[in-house]
Amino acid sequence: MSKETDDNKADAGEGLLSRFGTVPDSFAAATPHKLYRAMIVPLRSLRRQRILVNDTTKIAEMLESRAAEFSRPKEVPKESFTELGRTIFEAGPEQYARIRPLVELAYSPAKMKRYLPRVLEAGEEAIARLAKAEGPVDIAAEMQRLATDVSLRIVLSLNVGEGEGGEIAALLPDVATRMARTGMVSEFGGKDQPKGKGSDGKALAAALDAHLEARVPGIAEFKGPADVATDLMLTQHPETWERLDAGFVRHQVTALLVHGSEALAAALSWALYATANDPEIEARAGIEARTALEATGPLEFRTLARLRLIPDILNETFRLYPPIPLFARRPRQVELVTDIAVRESGFLFISPWHLGRHEAHWEEPERFDPDRWQRKSKGTAPGHHFVPFSEGTRRCPGAGMARLDCMAILTQILGTFHLSALPERIPTPQPGLALRPKDGIWLNVARR
Ligand code: HEM
């Protein structure tokens, strides 16, 4: 491209094409601001083409209208990752076609009703732990435990306090670290990434195999605990009547436990931090939550559906601290992105983090302002600039469940405790498998 054309593009399109953006040292750092202004940013890389896509028309093509022309990158190098490479996230087309509808069914609205009491029970136990705290609390550590507890209760009818559940819970963080080390965030670059190699998943695979094996005799008689694992194990092929093989089920259970608990923990932790950091919002959220708790005894669907501020806090959290800050696609054939021919080996990054802070998409993007969703300010109408759960055929099938979990738990916690941030401890977001705080999130927690 000639220099003249380059200049024209920069003049005409607010940095429509910004050549060679550098990856910030910290993924989350506010600089270089170019990443929050330009629409297409080729990132420096010696290894392969890597392009950040902030342009919503292109994102809509990649996720929806031309989704079949892009693949989800295989994140898991086979040689180092034998136990974790067959999940719904990496499944080839044939396996994917079989597993996706089952996962959707396992998290359908009817099932969500079944699981709400378990979520509330896990929330009550977290509240009992928080009530004993003296001095500032690492709310991120608490939310990690709570999110793991919720996932175990829904997927396996276990909980973190029990022997088998506790054993599985203890193995999950290292597996998440390994997935993050080999995943999209490490492809994106940046120095600020989780430390350690993590675990190859063999110990987790053995623990899950033992658990699922014990269910097999019951499954043969169409019996099993009411949970996601049983739903997957009971399914029969509509023509051959074959059941999913046990190894395949175990892979899906692993993916649901790891991704579900990491993403949920991130959502809850950052929502509580952002709320605690804004005393006015915190006070209003406390009143809304207490009113909801006092209305019906145990929280119900219809009470949660009447909340206004807490869902807005959640949306604002998904915008500023998206639990999955980055995902990627690869073109199946050479793809022209503005004037760049992206090869099949290249990565096209979709970053909810950068989209959520993008100056062209939002008013005052850096400001935590839950009320913008009621004011219907710029950016709050649905669109491909706000894709915390992705969109299209591969949209997160746990999105409905995750929103419900978050609304219920935030209502329980904000209705019970008054939270305030410690000005001297500002958390640093660190992208791993989900967006974690680097050294925890420390808050003062006092009963209302
Ligand atoms: C706030 C919480 C959550 C967020 C923000 C989130 C976000 C996402 C995103 C962005 C993707 C797409 C990734 C890609 O295409 O590369 C995804 C996929 C997925 N999510 Fe979630 N997720 C959350 C919670 C959950 C939960 C609780 C479950 C269920 C246990 C779940 C199950 C899945 C599955 C199975 C996929 C793969 C879908 C496919 O490839 O077809 N997620 N999620």
Total number of domains:
2
Please mark out the parts with pLDDT under 50 across 5 or more consecutive residues, or reply none. 1-25, 75-82
Beta percentage is 5-15%
User: Percentage of helical residues?
Assistant: 40-55%
CATH domain fold name of the largest domain: Cytochrome p450
Number of separate helices: 16
The fourth-level CATH homologous superfamily of the largest domain is Cytochrome P450
Order of strands, main sheet, comes to: 1-2-8-5-3
Mean pLDDT metric = 86
Distinct compounds present: protoporphyrin IX containing FE
Compressed to H and E, one letter per element, the order equals: HEEHEHHEHHHHHHHHHEEEEHHHEEEE
CATH class of the largest domain: Mainly Alpha
Name the overall outline: globular
- What radius of gyration results from the CA coordinates? 22 Å
Number of strands: 12
Q: Characterize the largest beta sheet: strand count, sense, and whether it forms a barrel.
A: 5 strands, mixed
The assigned CATH architecture of the largest domain is Orthogonal Bundle
